[in-house]
Structures are given as C-alpha cells and as structure tokens.
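Attaching the record inline, Q. Sequence:
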Amino acid sequence: MKLIFSFLLLISLTIPLVAQNPDVKSAGELRKIMFDADLSTKIRLDTLPRENLLAIGIVDSLQGEISIINGKVLISAIKNTYINTDTSLNYGATFLVYAYVKNWKVVLIEEEVHGLEALEMLVKKKAFENGIDLTRPFPFLVKTWVKNMSYRVINWQSGTLHTSATHSQFAHELWLSASTIMLAGFYSENHEGIYTNLNSKIIAHAITTEPMTAGHLETIETFGKIALYFPENTGKTKSNAVGDSKLHEY
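Structure, as predicted:
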C-alpha cells in the first residue's frame, strides 16, 4: 500500500493538472472570407460585455483589424495611407474570436523565437507544462522584445472582387524592430481555417505602443525574456511560473 501511495504521489508531482479552459467563441470563419468572399457582418462589438474580454478579428468588409485586451479596444485601419487607431465599440466584425479571462498566470522564459512555427511550439509546450488542456482552444498573451516583426492591417477596397489571390493586395504590411510588443492570440488543435491560420494552430495580433497600432502577426524574431500569459489555473505544475497575475499592464 505504501509503495502504491508513493507511486501515485510521484505521478501527481510530475504530470501537470489540467484545469478548465475558458470558453472560446467565434463569429465568422477565415476560410469563408478567403474562399467564399463572405465579408458580411457576423457580430457587433457593442453587443459584447467588455469586462475581461480578449478578442481579435477583422472589421466588417475587411476595413481594419480588431484587438481587444482586458476589455480595452483597439481598431486599427488605414486612412489616407496612414494607420488610424480607434478605441470605440461602434464596429461590426466579419470575423471575431474571443474569450473572457478574469485572471492570468505569467510564465517567464529565456528563449529566442524565430518565426510563427516556433512561437506555436513554444505556446503549446508551456501551456501543457502549466496545466492547460490542449484538446480545447485557449487564449494567450505574450510580452517580449522583438528583433524584427511584421504585421498586417487589411483595408479592402469596396467594389473589388475578393479572392484568396487578391486578398494580399489590400493587406498593408508594417515592419517593426528593436521594440517591446504584446501579442494577443488563440491556440486550437481543431479550428484551422475557422479562426487559426491555415496550416497553423495559432492566430495572433501584434500590439505596438509607439505609435499605438495593432494588426495580424505575420513574422516574428525575438530575443531576451518572453513573458507568456495563460488563463489562470490552480493546478500545481513544474514550470517557470512566477506567480499568478491579472494583466494590469495594458
């Protein structure tokens, strides 16, 4: 009996305890935008409660990018060749993925990331180590210093036929280097083409501070510390967690 108890204790100390993930909801689908030219409004932002809301998406008719962190709204759009950022809820979304997260747990990592695939693998690895259920979708946040990063703000021209081939013509790409940034994203094993990128398990928006802009993450290279935020859980895990933290910084 003592041997069985010791074995069970060892198991409990080495396997992360899986906690309930927050519900991830979505409106619209990326594949329907890309292949069916479905640019119609699927949800209005002013119909969503703002408290603890995390969301990323695309303004209806592909007229900008939506990023909401801890209930604070950033709508980035191209106006007269410049990026304009609005903070109101007076927008509809052609596509939106969102969740409500009251508390976040931060994990500090000394690791460089080179590309979206590496970011995906890092998120997956650290989520598992911190008791996140990988079989269900979950949101995450990242704070880090980037060597180089590119992100996209869509500005579709009304009256132009939308196809997967012409989509990139109206996607304004921006580059950033040697700066601190935040990423807001979602991970899912089962929603490719719905709300994660094709051939990927993640979708993320980049948020910059000088100037304050946000857009769809395209490429990333980091160095130095990375702060990964996951929905808080109480499972005891062997991780680099530095304590539970609600996201006050943004």
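The CA atoms of residues 105 and 232 lie 5 Å apart. The first strand starts at residue 24 and ends at 27.

More tomorrow.
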